[in-house]
Write a structure and sequence with these properties.
Blueprint lengths: L4 H7 L4 H9 L3 E6 L3 E5 L9 E2 L2 E2 L2 H13 L3 E8 L7 E11 L4 E7 L1 H38 L4 H33 L7 E4 H11 L1 H6 L3 E5 L1 E8 L1 H17 L6 E9 L2 E8 L21 H6 L6 H11 L3 E7 L3 E9 L2 E7 L1
Parallel strand pairs: 9-11
Antiparallel strand pairs: 1-2, 1-7, 3-4, 5-6, 6-7, 8-10, 10-15, 11-12, 12-14, 13-14
The structure holds adenosine-5'-diphosphate.
Length: 352
């Protein structure tokens, strides 16, 4: 456990006022003594995944600090820090390391500005894609309303066209909702306002949310071996990710099949697996399905009300939580999706 402000102000020669100044900064800060000993870290540093047992665990950051110790010059640089022990999620930190001659210590200021720039770029591309996706249901609504008008004297046709209009309107609503979900995700950092979430509860809540859909297709969703572990993060986002996996498992499976949710623990990671007996995904497509708006079979996705955004949301949630999502699938046999997240607390045992 790294030492906090209160303990240090008593145990070091350094004036408490100095620590106070560091705590008041907008940025996160570290005070590093020779030998890369951490004398002080602001509260926010805990969520940045750069300290382990009071040592800096990023070789890039250590190298930067060593340069400053050698040269006694302030150094400005960028370092990439994994968001968690697994997955590809990275945080790019802007680092300013300042040598304080009087103390022979180094103050390291850390900020996540580069993340804001990246979000801006992602959003720009996203808006271009959205415009294209919105045009399809809007175009369909416009054509269908013309059809209703020209068939005004034929009640059967009016019913047929109006029913399709309802479907297209629902698609449009779902699409807009998913776009809102995704843009919220891109704005937030769930590890900054991290809550403790029981994995078993997250799974049960997600299953509840898909109950109507699963029952209408005669698909039973079963759970086995839900371990007693806590993950850090935004519970709503994690439930949304699990719900997306469950909805897909149901949508891409024939009626009266089974969907199961299980989980395993190893090396501090909990793996939540959603398995189905559905149509499967050809191997060549398995990487692409996580891209926004990518569908293996656009006609089928449209039929089931898919927006093409579900799995990109899952991938985003996983990576923001320092985790990852994996898929195993075989056409006409079924698919398994695993959401892997770092465990915060493991209370041992397992509950069903
Ligand atoms: P959609 O809204 O189209 O379901 P997703 O991003 O959730 O969008 O999924 C992308 C594509 O991946 C889907 O269109 C489908 O082709 C494929 N897919 C996702 N989950 C499954 C699954 N469980 N079984 C078979 N195919 C799936």
């Amino acid at each position: 456990m790294w030492r906090r402000h209160e303990e240090l102000s008593e145990s070091t020669e350094i004036s408490p006022a100095f620590f106070n100044v560091l705590s008041q900064l907008d940025q996160d800060a570290l005070l590093v003594a020779p030998g890369e000993v951490i004398l002080f870290a602001t509260e926010g540093v805990e969520t940045l995944n750069i300290l382990k047992e009071n040592r800096i665990n990023s070789p890039e950051l250590v190298a930067l600090i060593r340069v400053v110790r050698r040269t006694h010059q302030t150094h400005l640089g960028k370092v990439e820090i994994p968001r968690g022990p697994i997955g590809e999620g990275l945080r790019e930190l802007t680092v300013r390391a300042i040598y304080i001659a009087e103390l022979d210590n180094i103050v390291v200021l850390l900020s996540d500005e580069s993340e804001a720039e990246r979000v801006h770029e992602v959003r720009r591309d996203f808006v271009a894609n959205i415009s294209h996706e919105l045009k399809t249901p809007i175009g369909a609504l416009s054509l269908l309303s013309e059809a209703v008008l020209s068939a005004a004297d034929e009640p059967d046709s009016v019913i047929k066209f109006a029913t399709r209009m309802q479907l297209e309107a629902k698609r449009l609503t779902d699409l807009v909702q998913e776009i809102i979900n995704l843009s919220r995700l891109q704005d937030s950092d769930p590890l900054m306002v991290a809550n403790e979430n029981s994995v078993a509860e997250l799974i049960n809540e997600a299953i509840d949310l898909v109950k109507t859909t699963s029952e209408s297709k005669g698909i039973s969703v079963t759970t086995t071996e839900l371990p007693d572990v806590i993950v850090l993060g935004d519970g709503e986002q994690l439930i949304m990710a699990l719900t997306n996996l469950l909805e897909n498992a149901i949508n891409y499976s024939p009626e009266n099949t089974k969907v199961s949710v299980s989980s395993t623990i190893s090396d501090g990671i909990v793996e939540i697996i959603v398995a189905d007996q559905g149509i499967g995904i050809p191997e060549g497509e398995q990487d692409r399905i996580f891209e926004r708006f990518y569908r293996v079979d656009p006609a089928r996705s449209r039929e089931t009300g898919g927006t093409g955004l579900g799995l990109s949301i899952v991938k985003h949630v996983a990576s923001k939580h320092g985790g990852e999502v994996k898929v195993w699938s075989s056409p006409n046999v079924g698919s398994s999706f695993a959401l892997r997240l770092p465990i915060f607390i493991s209370t041992g045992g397992s509950s069903e």
